[in-house]
Structures are given as C-alpha cells and as structure tokens.
Amino acid sequence: MDQYSSRIAKEVLEKFKMKGWNLYRSVIASPKTETDTFFFSPPGDIIRYNLTQHLELGRSYVMLPAVNDPRNPGQVFGALEKVAQKLDRKIQTINLKGIDYPFTGITLEKNGVKIHCPEGIRTTYSALIEALDSLVQAS
Q1: Given 3-state DSSP classes, what are the helix, strand and coil percentages for the chain, each rounded to the nearest 5?
Q2: Alpha carbons 96 and 99: distance in angstroms, whole number
Q3: What is the spatial distance between Cα 49 and Cα 51, in angstroms, rounded to a whole number?
Q4: Which of 14, 17, 42, 92 has its CA 20 to 30 A from that of 131?
Q5: Among the listed residues 92, 85, 74, 88, the one whose alpha carbon sits nearest the alpha carbon of residue 21
C-alpha cells in the first residue's frame, strides 16, 4: 500500500486539474457554545477562500469545476450546472475496481485516501490516481 507523501499529493492534485477540476478545502467550523452544533462553511465561502494549491494530510477536499476565476462562486456554480447537464443530472461517479461510486471529494490519510461517498470507501493513492481517469471532463 502506498503512503502519503508530498509527491503523491502533488500527483493527485495534478490529475484532478487534468480532468478540469479544482479542489477546495472543505471546512467544518467548531461550535461556539456547548449548545451549538458543528456546521459546514457556506459553499460560497469555500469557493472564495479555500481553493487549494497543495494537498495536506488529514484535510478533506471537495471537487468543483475549474473556471477562469476559481474564487468566483457564480462562475463555479455556472460550470457545475454545465457538468450536471453533461451527466443528465446524475451525480459524478468514480470507477474503482469496476464499481461506480458517487464522488464529491477526498480526504488524504497516511495509508490511502477516503473517497467522499455514502459508502465511505478507502483506497490506495495509486488506485485513486488511476480511477480519476473515469471522471467526466469538467472543463
């Protein structure tokens, strides 16, 4: 099993970019009081502030289509609409070992990658890099 390294992280990011996708750090904010619950950052804020240039261990990332201004929510959501039309309004999938899984992003772990999908699949870095070929070309 391959392990996390900055070289592998760079290769994963480049593969997403080759398929026309950007990765944004997905942030969960901590509760402010004992009665608060955890919440996700609003999508517009993720787009404006969390475009990533390098991937880090333990971080979660969401994939969104690459556009001219990747920090402009309007452009990103417009491109996402075009991808949705390409996919006949079905969710993007990734093919791992012949099985298609819904796919919205990844979390980098020491010994592999967690695929963001209902099944919570984990795979190796090399299997992820190969499977990224199955993504629809976003841009």
Answers
A1: 30, 25, 45
A2: 5
A3: 6
A4: 42
A5: 92
Cβ 27 vs Cβ 58: under 8 Å: no
Domain ranges of the chain: 6-28+38-134
CA 52, 55, 59, 64 torsion-angle sign: positive
Residue-level pLDDT at 48: 87
Among 85, 86, 99, CA closest to 134: 99
Q: How many helices (H) and strands (E) does the chain have?
A: 4, 9
Contacts (Cβ under 8 Å, ≥6 apart) of 48: 71, 73
In this structure, the chain runs to a length of 139
| Torsion 138-57-107-93 (CA) sign | positive
Walk along the chain (139 residues) and give the pLDDT tens digit of each residue. 488 999 999 999 999 999 999 999 987 554 455 554 445 567 788 888 889 999 999 999 999 999 999 999 999 999 999 999 998 998 889 999 999 999 989 999 999 999 998 888 999 999 999 999 999 888 7
